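Dear Dr. L.,

I hope this message finds you well. Following up on our conversation about the binding site, I have prepared a predicted three-dimensional model of the protein together with 3NM. For your records, I am including the exact sequence and ligand specification that went into the calculation, followed by the structure tokens. Please feel free to forward this to your student if that is useful.
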Amino acid sequence: MMTDPRKALADARLYGILDLGYVTAEKAEEATRALLKGGVDLLQLRAKTWTEAAILELGKKIAPLCKEAGVPFVMNDFPSLAIELDADALHLGQDDGSLEEARKLVGDQMLLGRSTHSPEQARQALLDGFDYIGFGPLFPTPTKLGRPGIGMDHVRAVQADVGIRIPVFCIGGIRRDNLAQVIEAGARRVVIVSDLLTAPDIATAVAEVQSSLRSAG
Ligand code: 3NM
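The resulting structure of the complex is given below.
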């Protein structure tokens, strides 16, 4: 199915991550299919402890599933893999270099996302020209150890400032059981990793989150 990744990003509410800290290599395709079936709007491949060669091998199976579903495929951290896998987007952390450096490597078309951890970083990412940001971690999370939760106090302000220009995805410790609070704090787009990947029925959990986000307006 052909989709314009830029339009898909603009409409996205739930950003799913296939994080290989939660899913074995053997179960990765199955988990990807379940995330897509449930209705994630974007899907990122994140494998912090894997070699590039192993990520590439898995990415060759995951990226086509996303393409088939019309869901933008996002590569975390590695511009070279993003190119090789024909990713729709590349996601960069604060320490992963500048937008200009990434642009030189991946060209003009690929969408670029940035992790931000304060309102100042969020604003800077907008000024730099990133296409979307993650904002968090709202709560401490086992998926990103060593970072304190920044809480929900700034969510509304960042949404009103940066979020009217580019998509802002709140991230970090968001679960189905605190999602209502996060929406109440002003979030309209979220990334949820562990709560979805460890759910007994991933597709149903994804669909439940989508429904809450879409009905929040
Ligand atoms: N980035 P979970 S928090 C990958 O704040 C990631 O930039 C974060 O996983 C950031 O939904 C995070 O399991 C982990 O908490 C999100």
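In brief: DSSP finds ten helices and eight strands in the chain.

With kind regards,
A. P.
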